[in-house]
Specification:
The complex is a heterodimer of chains A (about 160) and B (about 775).
Chain A: E1 3-9, E2 12-18, H1 24-31, E3 50-53, E4 56-59, E5 72-74, H2 87-94, H3 104-117, H4 123-129, H5 141-155
Parallel strand pairs in A: 1-5
Antiparallel strand pairs in A: 1-2, 3-4, 3-5
Chain B: H1 16-20, E1 36-42, E2 48-54, H2 56-59, E3 64-69, H3 70-74, E4 104-105, E5 111-117, H4 120-129, E6 131-136, H5 143-147, E7 162-170, H6 173-178, E8 182-193, E9 202-208, E10 213-218, H7 223-233, E11 241-244, H8 260-272, E12 276-279, H9 282-288, E13 292-303, E14 309-321, H10 333-336, E15 346-355, H11 369-387, H12 391-398, E16 405-406, E17 412-413, H13 418-429, H14 431-443, E18 447-456, H15 464-471, E19 478-484, E20 490-494, H16 503-515, E21 522-525, H17 544-571, E22 578-581, E23 584-587, E24 590-596, H18 597-604, E25 618-623, E26 632-641, E27 648-658, H19 665-684, E28 717-720, H20 738-755, H21 769-780
Parallel strand pairs in B: 1-12, 10-11, 14-15, 20-21, 27-28
Antiparallel strand pairs in B: 1-5, 2-4, 2-6, 3-5, 7-15, 8-13, 9-10, 9-12, 13-14, 16-17, 18-26, 19-20, 19-25, 22-23, 23-24, 26-27
Helix pairs in contact in B: 11-20, 13-14, 16-17, 17-18, 19-20
The chains are: A alpha+beta (about 160), B alpha+beta (about 775).
Bound molecules: FE2/S2 (inorganic) cluster (2 copies).
One FE2/S2 (inorganic) cluster binds next to loops of chain A.
């Protein structure tokens, strides 16, 4: 039996009927059609499914859609206005912070929350902020560089990261 | 040729804008109207007889469309899953593998039944309701034990567990050992690894019954081979099957070979006449996607007291798993590469492939070459240690110096400068400085170690002749097609298929320079068998640039030369009198008389072609490389081992590599970062563990199987030398696997160097704190 879910996704109010057991990640992917949020595991290790809930990073595979009732969610698709890039997206591009790109939306979302709290993170703080995200391609070297570069851009006055 | 502007430049990747904004198209992002979902019922036992399958409860669940078993699939799929000759052509026992078990399951996770339902959740629910009665059989877990005559058998109807047993003889090994002044021997483990692309596998199929056409979408490194295999098994003309591999979220070798689901999903679609999809869960992935490595080496090296290497004798026992992987015997190339960058009088290498009740092993990043390098570099260090010689000096003394260099097995290294990379790496790491710090630390009781790994790699597969024998008929060349559209933009089709390597970018760089067109006018197409040349050979074995890039370069050159003919006609000049630069043909001595390549492209579709010239401006080209390519380099790792906990801290990691000419240095560095991370991770963290008694997979999730986070990995210092390959016009080699091939040996050599004052000679992987702590305790007794 479906239940009613009301929430805001990327600034748009939605009302949907969902099965109580539907995970938030599948709600986003299959009901909202926002396929940029990925599924890389079934034990909440990889972080590919990270989205922002009221500005805080959550692993959307680890929540039921109904638990997001009333919340405001941001996914990778909603991070920047159409045709524009968030400073983190620019930095991942410029610093070659991605290879296959499957982990990337999760990293960018987790890093968005990190920079919103602290636009000048140390290596250690970046490590702590992104310890819930796995990448198998990059060895993380350029991901770390990208986060730093984005922090610099934010501090230099690029559009402030959306923390919700 | 156009002035080279883009080759060699740090061009930002063209594939990134969609990937950083969530607009990539991965396999799970595709849906079709009426899509049904498949779940697989898998054996919980490593080895058991199937006594009976009761579908009734599952079938009665509303929304379940079908519950299918081997019986149902037999009418759809013929023959077994393919096994190629690869490097062990003389196979002894090759058990037949049908994509789904009928009477006996031979590894945990082997498919027994599938459920197709209207939703993914329903399919999973119903799969739980399929009642399978098993009679457990003894599980074969340890490959060495399984070699012994009379041991339990991985297949109850098999003669024994020996998949192959052959020896590669490279020179007179007895004569080499007869001269030995010292000998060292070691037993070296290569633990099983799970490749763990962050995107799991997935397959979607749509079979159209009225025109007998099948479209198959899957996350694959190798779409054309999958089409060849699946069309054959399903009795469809190859031309009636289209395989599309969209954005692929990492592969590392695990998406080369066909899998059971690649057959079961299209067969289910044909049975149900509707599209069917299966997406692998991570739990399924760790259990059923191929593993890599899984080998035990015993080796003995002979040398003179002055450090001259003489002979290497080794045995590779390779844990095949329950069936031969399609390309599993490729891993025997560890034997052929076990001599590394050194001159040996003789090498004798025996490889034995052993069947066990585990998921099959198959190529994983480097496949055989990391194992060969690890073995060689460990043995060379053991010799140096035995002689009290500096490991850098011993290496220098034995490096192959003249190129082309023919190794003990007749393989010809195209070009190299092994001193060059080693010298630069020693300088970058401050080798003398670390040796001093090490000596001082030792006085304080601290354990610092410096580890070297000087590596060479065989890659860039082709050439066609040896590889046709290895694949069982298809010579590994590469095909590309270039098409100028009338308005002057260019479509480039390649038979390789990227899964993170940035081919859209590097291939565009090659085309842009060859044709003198801007990057923005070029579109690279790959991953769809409906487009481009007849066959594509896929991406693996660091082959895409050296073979595929060359095919593209050739096709672009053919097109350019036709354009030159046409331009000459239009300019009323001789083709030989035309210069071509920056996309413009101009008459030598009269630059005002010129035609841009875009103008020529339009003219190629126009009404004033020279007599005898066909319309259009396009070409297909196949490139068959005359040799493999042989990148090389030197990696140095510095570690400190905590005496009390056994924990290893990497202090510094330096890599100086040489992959010939570089198209895009940013991408080369990225490949090295990732490759080095995977090798370090093998050295320190990862291991697939099966319970030795029950054969149950212990490391079944990412909780137990350690994929390092950002916090576990160092930032390597990279540099490179450039020694072009003489075997292709671009002078390029490969770099996708280099980091993984080199790095495990550097780390383990560093750890062994650190522990050497305690009398410890060798540490196996993963060098976990527990393993090292135990060794330290043992050594103190
Ligand atoms: S899918 Fe892996 S943590 Fe959510
Ligand atoms: S870019 Fe491939 S997993 Fe991170």
């Amino acid at each position: 039996m479906g239940q009613t879910l009301r929430l805001k996704v990327n600034g748009v109010e939605r009302i949907d009927e969902v099965e109580p057991r539907l995970l938030l990640v599948y709600y986003l992917r299959e009901v909202c059609g926002l396929t940029g949020t990925h599924v890389g595991c079934d034990t909440s290790q990889c972080g590919a499914c990270t989205v922002l809930l009221a500005g805080a990073p959550v692993k959307s595979c680890n929540m039921l859609a109904l638990q997001a009732e009333g919340a405001s969610l941001t996914t990778i698709e909603g991070l920047a206005a159409p045709g524009e890039l968030h400073p983190l997206q620019t930095a991942f591009w410029e610093q070659h912070g991605l290879q296959c790109g499957f982990c990337t939306p999760g990293f960018i979302m987790a890093a968005t929350a990190l920079l919103a709290d602290n636009p000048d993170p140390s290596d250690e703080e970046i490590g702590r902020g992104l310890e819930g995200n796995l990448c198998r391609c990059t060895g993380y070297v350029n991901i770390r560089k990208a986060v730093k570069a984005a922090g610099e851009a934010v501090r230099a006055g690029a559009a402030a990261p959306m923390g919700g | 040729m156009a002035v080279s502007q883009l080759i060699g430049a740090r061009v930002q990747r063209r594939e990134d804008p969609r990937l950083i904004t969530g607009r990539g198209h991965f396999i799970e992002d595709h849906v079709l109207p009426g899509l049904a979902h498949m779940a697989v019922v898998r054996s919980p036992h490593p080895h058991a007889r199937i006594v009976g399958i009761d579908k009734a409860a599952a079938q009665s669940l509303p929304g379940v469309l079908a519950v299918l078993t081997a019986q149902d699939f037999k009418a759809q799929i013929s023959g077994g899953m393919p096994v190629t000759p690869a490097f062990a052509p003389e196979k002894k026992y090759v058990p037949e593998r049908f994509p789904i078990a009928e009477s006996e399951v031979c590894f945990q996770g082997e498919p027994v039944a599938v459920v197709v339902a209207t939703s993914r959740a329903l399919a999973a629910d119903a799969a739980d309701l399929v009642q399978v009665e098993y009679e457990p059989l003894p599980a074969v877990v340890d490959p060495e034990a399984a070699m012994v005559a009379g041991s339990f058998k991985a297949h109850s109807d098999g003669p024994d567990n020996i998949g192959w047993d052959m020896t590669f003889a490279g020179g007179d090994i007895d004569a080499a050992f007869a001269k030995a002044e010292i000998r060292v021997s070691e037993r070296i483990l290569q633990q099983r690894l799970a490749p763990t692309a962050i995107e799991p596998r997935g397959v979607m199929a749509d079979y159209s019954p009225y025109d007998e056409r099948l479209t198959l979408w899957l996350s694959s490194q190798n779409p054309h081979f999958i089409r060849l295999f699946v069309s054959g098994a399903m009795g469809l003309p190859e031309s009636h099957v289209r395989v599309v591999s969209p954005d692929v979220g990492g592969g590392f070798g695990s998406k080369i070979s066909p899998y059971p689901e690649d057959y079961l999903v299209p067969a289910a679609s044909r049975i149900l006449s509707r599209p069917v999809r299966w997406i692998e869960t991570r739990t399924e992935s760790v259990m059923t996607t191929i593993h890599g490595r899984g080998q035990v080496f015993t080796a003995e090296a002979a040398a003179l007291r002055d450090g001259t290497l003489l002979g290497l004798r080794l045995t590779q026992v390779l844990d095949l798993g329950a069936y031969h992987g399609t390309f599993g015997a490729f891993q025997a190339c560890a034997c052929l590469m076990s001599g590394g960058v050194y001159r040996w009088e003789a090498i004798s290498a025996r490889t034995v492939g052993v069947l066990t009740n585990k998921v099959p092993t198959d190529p994983y990043r480097g496949a055989g070459r990391p194992e060969g390098t690890h073995l060689c570099e460990r043995m060379v260090d053991r010799v140096a240690q035995e002689l009290g010689m500096d490991p850098a000096d011993l290496r220098r003394k034995n490096f192959a110096q003249e190129f082309p260099y023919v190794n003990n097995f007749g393989l010809t290294y195209d070009s190299g400068n092994y001193d060059g990379t080693l010298d630069r790496a020693l300088e970058l790491v401050d080798y003398p400085g670390w040796r001093q710090r090490q000596a001082k630390a030792r006085e304080e009781g601290r354990l610092i170690g410096v580890g070297l790994s000087t590596w060479v790699e065989i890659c860039g597969f082709g050439p066609s002749q040896p590889t046709a024998a290895a694949t069982g008929g298809i010579g590994l060349v590469e095909a590309a097609e270039i098409r100028f559209l009338p308005s002057g933009s260019v479509a480039a089709y390649v038979g390789t298929h990227a899964h993170g390597q940035g081919h859209d970018t590097t291939f565009s760089q090659i085309v842009a320079d060859t044709l003198g067109v801007p990057l923005a006018a070029i579109e690279v197409h790959h991953g769809d068998t409906a487009e481009g040349p007849a066959f594509g050979y896929g991406t693996y074995g660091s082959r895409s640039l050296a073979v595929g890039g060359m095919a593209l370069h050739q096709a672009a050159t053919v097109v350019r030369e036709k354009a030159r003919q046409l331009a000459a006609h239009l300019l009323e000049a001789s083709p030989d009198d035309l210069d071509f630069a920056q996309g413009t043909f101009s008459v030598r001595g009269n630059p005002a008389a010129h035609k841009t390549v875009q103008e020529v492209a339009l003219a190629a579709y126009g009404g004033s072609l020279p007599e005898g010239m066909e319309h259009g401006l396009e070409a297909v080209s196949y490139f068959d490389p005359p040799n493999f390519v042989w990148p090389f380099g030197a990696h140095i790792c510095v570690v400190e081992v905590d005496r009390d906990t056994g924990a290893v801290a990497i202090q510094k990691y330096v890599a100086v590599d040489d992959c010939g000419n570089v198209i895009n240095p940013m991408i080369v560095e990225g490949q090295l970062h990732g490759g080095i991370a995977q090798g370090i991770s093998q050295a320190l963290y990862e291991e697939v563990v099966y319970d030795q008694e029950s054969g149950q997979l212990v490391t079944g999730t990412m909780v137990d199987y350690l994929i390092p986070t950002m916090n576990e990995l160092p930032v390597p210092t990279l540099d490179r030398t450039v020694t072009p390959s003489p075997t292709n016009a671009l002078g390029v080699k490969g770099i996708g696997e280099a980091g993984t091939i080199a790095s495990s040996a550097a780390v383990i050599n560093a750890i062994c160097d650190a522990l050497s004052p305690l009398g410890i000679h060798h540490v196996d992987m993963p060098a976990t704190p527990e393993r090292i702590w135990r060794m330290i305790q043992e050594a103190a007794r």
